[in-house]
Amino acid sequence: MALAAAFAFDQGTKWWIAEVVMQPPQTIPVAPFFNLIFHRNTGVSFGLFAGNGEAGRWALVAVALAVIAMLCVWMIRAERAWVGIALGLVAGGAISNVVDRLRHGGVTDFLDFHYAGWHWPSFNLADAAICVGVALLLLDGFLGERRQETAGIADGRQP
Fold it and tell me: Any idea which residues are catalytic in this one (predicted)?
């Protein structure tokens, strides 16, 4: 469910920005620290590896599909519901960005946060879903270690 929601919300917002809001493309100030913009990122996070042409695009798609396949296997095997949700957010966001690469040659970014002339690289809801999913996985990792320590103390395995 999280995978489908992340994918649908991201694709819907990207369509709305590209086809409705950004006709013509422009910068729309929303708050003193936030703009809506239109940008196609041909690289990966923060624009890294952009400019590698068609070969680079297809390499990024191939790597992303391999990662998505591993995430889906992990998601199916997840023992805790929230781990499945976290993995769904990551996989759904990744799938949506792959669809953008295949359809448009790059990922549609439109969220632009800034402060005192410094801009965070623009991003989209897929990127946000991926970050939230990864944060939940890290939290689960920390809590999992804590649960194991607590269980070990409770049954006498640890001093």
Answer: 109, 127
* Catalytic residue list contains 109: yes
Catalytic, 127? Answer yes
Which residue range(s) make up the domain with 66?
A: 1-14+36-116+126-155
Question: Does residue 148 lie within any of the structural domains?
Answer: yes
The answer to whether position 25 is within a domain reads no
- The string of pLDDT tens digits covering residues 19-69 is 999 999 999 999 999 999 999 988 665 455 555 567 776 888 888 899 999
Structure tokens at 125: 């809801």
Tokens of 158: 């640890």
- Enter the pTM of the model: 0.82
> Within a 13 Å sphere around the CA of 129, how many CA atoms are in the beta-carbon half?
25
Per the residue annotation, which of 109, 112, 140, 155 is the catalytic one?
A: 109
